[in-house]
Amino acid sequence: MDRKIRIGYSCSYVPSSLLEQAGLEMIKVSERELENLAGNKDMLNTLCSLALKSTAVIDACDLDGFIFTNCCNSMQRAYDYLIHKGKKVYLLEIERKQREDYKEYYTHCVRELLEHIAYDFPIQKNLNNITIKAGWNIPMWKNDFDEKAVLVIANIIPTHIEKLFHDIIQPCRLIIKSCHRMICDQEEKNPSVLEREPCVHSFEFAKWLEELLQKNQEKLYGIIFLTSSYCDASLFMYPYVRKTARKYNIPEICLETSFDYSGMGQVATRVEAFMEGIQNRKIYQYQSTSEEFKSKKQDVRLDAVISSLQESGTIRADMKENITFLTKIRYVRAVVGKMEYDCLKTLISYQIDMVINKLKGESEKIVWTNMVMPVELFYSMGLIPVHIELISGWLASLGLSKHYIMLAESMGIASAVCSYHKAVLGLLISEECLHPKTMVFASTICDGGFALGEYCSQRFGTNTFSIEVPYEDNEESCQFVSKQYETLIYWLEQNTGMKYSKKKFEEALQLSNQSRKGWIEANRMRKDTPDFKGRLALRNLFGTTFLFGSKIGVQVVEEYKKDIQRLQKQKTGEKRRKRILWVHFSPLYRNELLEYMEEDLGLSVSADIVSYIYWNEYKMEDGILDVSKRLLSHFYIGNEKRRKNIFNDIINEYEIDGIIHYMHRGCRTIGGSAWLIRELALERHLPYMELHGDCIDPRGNASQQDFTRLEAFKESLEGV
């Protein structure tokens, strides 16, 4: 090749000057170039438009390769897609939180990136001669803002939007901070891989913004917060930006956009009104002092929000009486004994007791977490893990999710945020349960969990710990996660007062192995038991894996096996049903969809990915290493071939006849990989259907249309 290797990138975290030392020509793909690219019809349209546009960038910009950063689920899916298409793309891990023990790992990631590019292309420079610095100094804007400056904080800023801002905001100076651009770019002076202004995906962003606004509060004219419709990190960060801006009496406005030209007139009107309003800064002088702003008295309570929504006619006048979560869940306890499976009786009784007796009164022992986080460590320390997915599921099942979601949205949480997180936030804002004191999340497949933790940290003062899980599963990644786990143990001791015991941790791991083994056996028995109602496993039993590591978890699994064995002994003579693989959760506010599918159409949910055991048995030689490997083994991260192989294994083992992919509106990860499942179904000659909807939010539910599509899907199974 006569010319230099052309490697594209768009994220400002990519150390381009360092890569140029290796002899590469680094091409920063601008918003203008991305804006003109075609979209991607294969991928979900609820992914960030920046990620969707990036899938066409290599061919359109005459690049040899492209560097993505592991900043969000949308970028992971774009990276997956291009790898599958045979493109030379690379994924660089970036730090979300500054810690000394992270330096070595992130330095390794940059070195590994260079080696991967050198493997694909002839690089003449000796990579060993390139020094990779790793400092932690965050660059801060050194110069004062102009007297009339407007700050734009954005993940993307399309060129037509930027031009519009310049035209309207003149003569003010426009200062832009986006995923593509830093306010203060010191990369050329100091090519450290870590010295970057934090973006909204970073836990350091709030601290950085506070310092920036405090220094320039008298000179900063206003803030425009611009986000794409499906960037969870940005959407969760806006309430904090609004709070901080108001603290320093700086006007702000939030706009959602994409790379197309839709809504330009509305954007122009809102920005014009915003600029007219801040001509006289006095109208934005808030009455509260900084100390008063921090006071809980400034928080909007449930009563005030409900009254406002009632007056507007948005909700019924009797909503307050019907909205109480703790009251409604007590009613369920009265009917638990009538459930047909013993495993459900035990599981749901435990969950009700946890909500009523623990969630309300034992907040010191409660650890809020997400479904991909292994919980054995919590049980071994006498802590009680509470999963946001479980609580949201209960809110939906009790018919309360809509109201709590509306409450969260009234407090500034965007409609595009996943409803699992909005429902829980609404519950916490309502103060019907105590604010979380401790949260621990893993970043594995859900940006929303990370963002929720940061939001609660800022709003409720929650102690939050996040385990950053790299995308690739290798030895260095495993060591990186293990070090974080070791830090987590000390952190939990300091924040909960509970003590770690290696012996008790090993006992919890053994209980988890026991539950895992029994769960796999039960799932295999279930496929040959047509009378078993798979919809109940999908709706209710998924919470069992949250108990792995406890004695109650072992009990539920054993009862699950016995329930299936009892059905097998009855021998009703029912013939084999068509076996369906269900991908993702189901809509938890409506039982009738899956009931219609199994009872009326005679199909069977024989397997679902929610209950699929993807991790290996713990070897017990090193417990921390075991759980670290589990985090890295999730099949929605890492090589897309591994994901495809796992789905192939499920299809073979459970003798699947068709696949239904429920496209939950707020999920970027699972829905964003639908193209792979669609392709696999085509290869295996299996009927495949996507149902679009929301698992938690009942608004916009198209039930009759779904019933019609299920009927058509059944007809397509006749020839299988």
Automatic annotation (TrEMBL):
Top-level taxon: Bacteria
UniProt GO MF annotations: hydro-lyase activity; iron-sulfur cluster binding
Cofactors, names only: [4Fe-4S] cluster
Keyword list, A-Z: Iron, Iron-sulfur, Metal-binding
InterPro entries associated with the record: FldB/FldC_alpha/beta
Magnesium found in the keyword field: no
Similarity comment: family membership: Belongs to the FldB/FldC dehydratase alpha/beta subunit family.
The protein, known as: 2-hydroxyacyl-CoA dehydratase
